[in-house]
Amino acid sequence: MKRKGFTLIELLAVIVILAIIALIATPTILGVIEKARKGATEQSALGYIDAIEKQIMINDTNNIQELKDGTYLVEDINISYKGKGPTKGTVTIKKGEVTTTNLCFKTYSVDYDGTKATISNNNYCKEDKVILKEKENINEIAIENKKAVIDLTNYTDYTNIHCNNNAKLEIENNQLIVTNIIGEVTCQLDKTLEDTFSNLDDSSNSIMMLSDETLSNGITIEKNKNVTLDLNGKTISSTTDTIKNYGNLVIDSQNNFGTITSTGKNSKVIFNTTETANLIIHNGYIKGTENCDTWSCSPLYNTVKSNLEVTPLTINKFDEQNNYVNGVYVESHFGIAMWLGSLSNATINGGIYNVIKTSGSWQHLVCSNCNLLTINYAKTIGDGISIRKQSINGDIIVNDGNFESVGKSVVVTDPDSQGEIVINGGKFISKNNFGIVNDGLATIKIIQTNKPIYISTQAKIWSPAIVNNFEGLIEIKGKKADQCTNNSEDTKIGLCIYAEGDKNYSQNTANGGIQNKKTGTINLDGGTIYGGQQGINNSSTGIFNVKNSEIKSGYWGILNYTTGTINICSSDINSNHVDFYNTSTGVINYSPDVVFTNKTNTPIISVNKGTINSNYLGDCN
After folding, report:
1. Is 78 helix (H, G, I), strand (E, B) or coil?
2. CB of 337 within 8 A of CB of 300?
3. 315 Cβ neighbours under 8 A, 6+ residues apart
4. CA count, 13 A, side-chain hemisphere, 597
5. 606 vs 218, 256, 577, 611, CA distance in Å?
6. Cross-sheet strand order for the sheet of 117-120
7. What is the pLDDT of residues 482-534, one digit of tens each?
8. Cα angle for residues 365, 492, 353 (degrees, 5° grid)
9. pTM for this structure?
10. Degrees (nearest 5) of the Cα angle 311, 307, 166?
11. Smallest Cα–Cα separation from 349: which of 99, 94, 67?
């Protein structure tokens, strides 16, 4: 039987069909392969980062001083990692965690933002080189010993130079030293910062100021831009808001103390806004405008879920003429040094905050409907309220610091405020007003554990060191102070609350330690309290619980002024006139283990219809 084969036309048709199928399928298949490779690379990056963080934990456990906070080249990181690691790149570590990376895995560049790894368009895998752009001139700068040196002698017409791809910049003897070179780094000289910020790419950009600059309209850092600005001892000023930050901005001044300021009417120096905005300040003088008559012209103005961190890399220093020369110094000429609003966050790890009195309401650090303000250390000087909490939302944590106000209270919560202020350490001193004031429904917790806490007012009129003015709650817990005097340096251990006032203790020019003024509650568990006229005052229908404390006074130890209740357990009462003074129908309960050290032999007095019960068996909570 004769077999019939395919005709040439049929074969050609099959070939054409197969070619069409291949043409359609190949890009899809290649895309799937490429996507798989990218996904595998991202997973490799996450595995590498996880290995670094595990090594950090091991180092901390064994007190090994490696992989501390900082930025490292991949080749300088020694870890045990079984997977495919990067061939080059950088890793930034902060507080024991990897926060950012710029890595090269063979042909793929990978960025990490602290939560996820993504394939990047930045060319970390290219050959390492540094390109200098100056007008139309393009030159390659030689790299020796992992750094490139650019001589700036002939570039006096430019205000700054910026380099991309996470390069690090330093200046020494008018030479720019570029390090951290991963892939192709482009450095460009610009005559204005406006030009610089309009030319930034999406990598991490470093800017070194070369001369002072006055901006006509300020500068804007767009969302997802990453900028490190080294002031290099120069001054940036503007007649409007000087910097508006929607991206990631780090301000530094490694070698010379620089300044950012504004001269415009009611303008801000740095406006940090939106949830994409992250601002870190390591060094610099942030000087507010002197042409201001509203609270909103704060030098540091943070809003809309933005994030601020102040971490000085050097100790705050003054020169012989008392000029500030290092660290972080924030100065307001109207009212507010740092404003934190609209669910924003701030972590303050140092710096000096000064409010220069001209007019208005003066405040240093303000949480107004913020999310969280954490103060690990700060120093306030001048006339303002050191720490103020406004509105319903927001908590404040104070771990240490030196907070002083000449004319205002040191810590204040507003009438509409809720949330918490937690104080774990520090010195809080008002020269002429109350020390700590709870005016609203908020809770103030003063918890002394390891660090001493000193709270004082030096006012010569009735202005207690701590006062609960409304329905709020104040909880105080600590150890008795080793010394509690009008000198904060004397208190090395424990909690000291001191308010002497005038030494004529029977008059209102003398002062009081703690006052519960209305219907709120104060729980005092430990510490040493001294009031010139009164150690403790319960003025209305509120409740004041005292235990494990030392109450001292030049006149009345504890005064229950109206119908409130005071409960006292396991405490020492030491007054020069009367230990308990119950002036109305209120109740003073005290347990049998309360110790009286009275110098006038009149330890207890009750006036009117009030009750003093000496057999109280409650727990004073």
Report:
1. coil
2. yes
3. 326, 327
4. 9
5. 67, 66, 14, 7
6. 70-73, 88-94, 97-105, 108-112, 117-120
7. 999 999 999 999 999 999 998 888 887 899 999 999 999 999 999 999 999 99
8. 20
9. 0.89
10. 65
11. 94
Q: Is the dihedral of CA 313, 314, 315, 318 positive or negative?
A: negative
Structure tokens of 121? 């368009």
Give exposure, 507-535, as e/b (b: 16+ Cβ within 10 Å). Answer: eebbbbbbbbbeebbbbbbbbbbbbbbbb
CB 555 within 8 A of CB 533: yes
Q: In 62-180, which residue ranges form alpha helices assigned H by DSSP? A: none
Distance of alpha carbon 141 from alpha carbon 129, whole angstroms = 7
Give the whole-angstrom CA distance, residue 430 versus residue 458: 6
CB count within 10 Å of CB 201 equals 13
Under 8 Å between Cβ of 74 and 85: yes
Establish how many alpha carbons lie within 13 A of residue 78's alpha carbon, considering only the half-sphere containing its beta carbon: 4
Q: Are 196 and 232 in contact (CB under 8 A)?
A: no
- CA atoms of 373 and 147, how far apart (whole Å): 40
| Residues 363, 385 contacting (CB under 8 angstroms) | yes
Task: Note the residue count of the chain.
Answer: 621
Rounded CA separation 283/451 (Å): 27
Which of 421, 454, 431, 426 is closest to 381 using CA atoms? 431
The CA distance from 229 to 208, in Å, is: 6
Q: Is 383 in contact with 358 (CB distance < 8 Å)?
A: no
How does pLDDT run across 349-404, given as a tens digit for each residue? Answer: 999 999 886 555 688 999 999 999 999 999 998 888 999 999 888 999 999 999 99
And the tokens for 408? 């205002």
Q: Which residues contact 235 (CB under 8 A, 6 or more apart)?
A: 212, 213, 258, 259, 260, 261
CA 576, CA 292: separation in Å to the nearest integer? 50
Strand ranges (DSSP E) for 2-120?
Answer: 70-73, 88-94, 97-105, 108-112, 117-120
What DSSP line would sit under 178-208, residue for residue? EE---SEEEEEEES-HHHHHHS--SSEEEEE
Token readout for 370 is: 């913020």
DSSP 172: E
In sequence order, what E strands does 424-510 have? 426-430, 436-438, 443-447, 453-457, 466-468, 473-477, 495-499
Lookup: tokens for 491:
């208190």
